[in-house]
Amino acid sequence: MLGDDLRTQLLVRPALHEEAPIILDLWQNSARWLNSKGIYQWRPEYFNLEQVLEFMNDGSDVYLAEWNNEIVGTYILTWSDPFIWQELDNSESGYIHRFAVHREYRGLDIGKYLLKNAEQQIRLKGKTWIRLDCMAENPRLNQYYRDCGFQYIRRIDGEGWSANLYEKQ
């Protein structure tokens, strides 16, 4: 549970270019943990430093969460996602991607805090809808997003993968 100490000391801020390796490490560690649970939503070998830098340079907003001088989480906000959202992609939405919390800090509700922070950032950009997606075969994460108030929109199927789309107003 996120206590008052953590809530007041958790700093969510834009990531710096020189912090790209830290973000990559968060993604890869999250992927390894997921894979160890039999969940292949992310694969560590699919992530590389160029992807992090591409997000930082393409107009996306990349955030890090810091607590006691330790990086404890990250997320990315994009302002369009036609690949996943297809014909539903629109300019009234902000899209949360690559949401990850360092495994050593699980159980502290950091993830819920980061989602709320992302929602606030999206609203500050004047967007009406907050959107995200996750692998359809990850029941725990699908339930987590529903528990956080996101509504299921639909499932999409790609080559060798399926994702569920979620949004909230």
TrEMBL record:
Domain N-acetyltransferase: start-end pairs: 10-169
The UniProt record lists the keyword Transferase: yes
Record's keyword annotation contains Manganese: no
Protein name as annotated: N-acetyltransferase
Keywords: Acyltransferase, Transferase
Domain of life: Bacteria
SUPFAM superfamilies attached to this UniProt entry: Acyl-CoA N-acyltransferases (Nat)
Origin species: Paenibacillus woosongensis
Signal peptide per UniProt: none
